[in-house]
Amino acid sequence: MEDKVSESQTGNVTESDIFVKESDETSEEYKTVETEEFIEETNEVDSSTKPQTQAKEAQGLEDQEALRQLDIYLTDITKALNAPAMVTTTRDNDRIIFDLDTDKKGILIGHHGKTLNALQYLAQVYVHRIAKNKLSIEVNVGDYRQKRQEVLQKLAEQTAEKVKHTKRAAFLEPMPAFERKQIHSVLSKNKDITTHSEGDEPYRYLVVEPVKKSY
Fold first, then answer.
1. What integer pLDDT is reported at residue 10 of this predicted model?
2. Which one-letter DSSP state was computed for residue 194?
3. pTM of the entire structure?
4. In the chain, where does the domain assigned CATH 3.30.300.20 lie?
5. Do the beta carbons of residue 96 and residue 135 sit within 8 Å?
6. H or E segment and range at residue 92
7. DSSP class per residue in 124-189
8. Which one of 170, 184, 191, 211 has the lowest number of neighbouring Cβ atoms within 10 Å?
9. What compartments host this protein (predicted)?
10. pLDDT-derived band of residue 96, with 50, 70 and 90 as boundaries?
11. 40-142 sits in which CATH class?
């Protein structure tokens, strides 16, 4: 039976996605809580799901062999997470997309896609370590990334409205660079709003704040 994906896993926009800065103390509290949650999920994938198959650790592998090793790596991780998946690979311009087909989508996606993003982060680090060339990796489960893209559009618009109304900075939850880039692209057209990223990968997050007007 297929594992159901909750609203938080599909990425629907909620109040928890947007954090309005009340004070420096509030900001630090948010950053600590969200970062700790993300670290726990990432570490769970990284430390407790060592692949059973011994993939090559040699550096400088050609693209095809590096991607084959990454396929093995992801397959073994999904088994360790008790959500075994069939891995298929496609190319989209300069990106290589690894789609994980499983009956337990919710496990591999996680809350707001954090488990999936952790998997993608690990996959990117792994392939950078073994591949001769620089490869851009995306890991997807079903149509999650497509739905998430629509949600990020709404999140960007709602955040902009909230910042304009409160005239205070808003901190979004940690997200991968490609998601931050999408939100930044949407808000770059808004002359009343400015955006920048803070923190270190993979816990880097976007700050949305009103433009300071000079008189």
1. 53
2. E
3. 0.68
4. 40-142
5. yes
6. strand 86-92
7. HHHHHHHBSS--EEEEE-TTHHHHHHHHHHHHHHHHHHHHHHH-S-EEEPP--HHHHHHHHHHHTT
8. 191
9. Cytoplasm
10. very high
11. alpha beta
